[in-house]
């Protein structure tokens, strides 16, 4: 319920204006999907250019509603759980400055220590957010305010600090990265934001963590996520996990003021047959738990599902408010396996992708079983929540698929995958490919934490 596409009101307004201009001008003809056949050569080059950082992911669509990674920041390092969000750029953590609207105790908040960036910093102006309080003096602290489409917001200051990382090639690095120290979080909407310490912004903008790691020459600007149906998965920045074959690619919409990963046009299929819904654009947003379709696509899918359920044992469960559309069986359901045979595969077929597999969504990737034992539709009416004609595909659709956001080639790719299994990239470097590929928890350097006393971070006076 928390699509986290950046959505400050003014920004959103302009976004839609440009979006419609863009659609009317028919720029989507540029879109294409191709199956990559030259990855082998590309990979050789990549070895010289950069490595990857890989993080295990935890979380689920229901009941949690988010997926997160653990990341350490600062010196001494402190561990933060961050919601992974390809729908926004800015990474931020709850900030002890002191904090309003923080959900974590002070000891688990980030404490700034004379590392607040000035207004004149490149990434401050590159935030692309309308400045609530424009800078009078370039030496003033760089304030940011970010709003999400679920009405949650974070206000804070930009800081820079160390991010100790273990790269997939075995090296450790401690780049200085810029992120937000959020000292005022609000969530007036009906749904609380994820209780994580903050957000890991993986959008297309300058301040995005992947863009920053790329400008430092550490990784390619490529993001890979793989979320399983069983609370696990992984996230990678860099392109070493991109399979050398079998990936279907489609180009990202360009010329947009938006930093969203938008692809299209796509055709919507149900049970491998056309629904009549064509030419839709979709935003890939890991910060959204569910998928939002515009009125037309939503109605088409809902009507087809309802038609299929006619005469079956599943009947409307209006009393279950977990999601807008739920069904009950004669007995409470324990698992999707009991009912998934009553539902068909949904498919998004992008542009010209004759050689690739369209984006397939089996029932277990668009339905949930609630605590009350009902089955609910994880596709929501985007028009109803103010997304207008936008289609946002969220975590629920991403389960069991490796999704690749390739900012180097302005394209997005997917391949079905067992995301519960940790990837093994060491063989890329000619090393023994044992199950110990990531002996120390992937990108996270866990030994840094043994004996780390977080109270050490609390002495400096970091009031903002
Ligand atoms: C691993 O990659 C990083 C970043 O590209 C590079 O600086 C480092 O030298 C590499 N280490 C090894 C062992 O190749
Ligand atoms: C989707 O929401 C819009 C706006 O609230 C509403 O007019 C429309 O009937 C809804 N569609 C369906 C199929 O419920």
From TrEMBL:
Transmembrane segments: 12-28, 49-69
Single annotated GO MF: aspartic-type endopeptidase activity
Protein's GO biological process: proteolysis
Keyword terms, alphabetized: Aspartyl protease, Hydrolase, Membrane, Protease, Repeat, Signal, Transmembrane, Transmembrane helix
Top-rank lineage group of the source organism: Eukaryota
UniProt xrefs under Pfam families: TAXi_C, TAXi_N
PANTHER family membership: ASPARTYL PROTEASES, EUKARYOTIC ASPARTYL PROTEASE FAMILY PROTEIN
Protein family per UniProt: Belongs to the peptidase A1 family.
Protein name per the record: Aspartic proteinase Asp1
Organism: Cardamine amara subsp. amara
């Amino acid at each position: 319920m928390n699509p986290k596409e950046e959505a400050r009101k003014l920004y959103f307004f302009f976004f839609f204006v440009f979006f419609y201009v863009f659609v009317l001008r028919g720029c989507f003809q540029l879109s294409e999907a191709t199956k990559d056949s030259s990855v082998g050569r590309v990979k050789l080059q990549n070895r010289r250019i950069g490595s990857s950082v890989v993080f295990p992911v935890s979380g689920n669509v229901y009941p949690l509603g988010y997926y997160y990674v653990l990341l350490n920041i600062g010196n001494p390092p402190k561990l933060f759980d961050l919601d992974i969000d390809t729908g926004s750029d800015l990474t931020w953590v709850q900030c002890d400055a002191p904090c309003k609207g923080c959900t974590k105790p002070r000891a688990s908040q980030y404490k700034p220590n004379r590392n607040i960036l000035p207004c004149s910093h490149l990434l401050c102006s590159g935030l692309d957010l309308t400045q609530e309080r424009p800078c009078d003096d370039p030496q003033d602290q760089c304030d940011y305010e970010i709003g999400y489409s679920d009405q949650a917001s974070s206000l804070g200051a930009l800081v820079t600090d160390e991010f100790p990382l273990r790269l997939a090639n075995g090296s450790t690095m401690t780049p200085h990265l810029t992120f937000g120290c959020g000292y005022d979080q609000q969530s007036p909407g009906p749904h609380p934001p994820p209780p994580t310490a903050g957000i890991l912004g993986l959008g297309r903008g300058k301040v995005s963590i992947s863009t920053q790691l790329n400008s430092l020459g550490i990784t390619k600007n490529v993001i890979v996520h793989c979320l399983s149906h069983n609370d696990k998965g992984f996230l990678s920045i860099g392109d070493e996990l991109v399979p050398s074959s079998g990936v279907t690619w489609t180009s990202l919409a360009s010329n947009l003021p938006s930093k969203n990963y938008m692809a299209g046009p796509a055709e919507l299929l149900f049970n491998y047959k056309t629904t009549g819904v064509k030419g839709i654009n979709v935003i890939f947003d890991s910060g959204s738990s569910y998928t939002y379709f515009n009125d037309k696509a939503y109605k088409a899918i809902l009507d087809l599902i309802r038609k299929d359920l006619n005469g079956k044992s599943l009947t409307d469960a209006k009393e279950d408010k977990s999601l807008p559309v739920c069904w009950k069986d004669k007995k409470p359901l324990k698992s999707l396996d009991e009912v998934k045979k009553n539902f068909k595969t949904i498919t998004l077929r992008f542009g010209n992708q004759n050689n690739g597999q369209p984006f397939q969504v089996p029932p277990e990737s668009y339905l949930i079983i609630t605590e009350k034992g009902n089955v609910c539709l994880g596709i929501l009416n985007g028009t109803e929540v103010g997304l207008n004609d936008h289609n946002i595909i969220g975590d629920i659709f991403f389960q069991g698929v490796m999704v690749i956001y390739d900012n180097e080639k302005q394209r997005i790719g997917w391949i079905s995958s067992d995301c519960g299994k940790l990837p093994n990239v060491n063989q890329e470097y000619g090393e023994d490919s044992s199950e110990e590929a990531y002996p120390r928890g992937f990108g996270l350097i866990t030994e840094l934490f043994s004996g780390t006393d977080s109270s050490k971070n609390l002495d400096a006076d970091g009031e903002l």
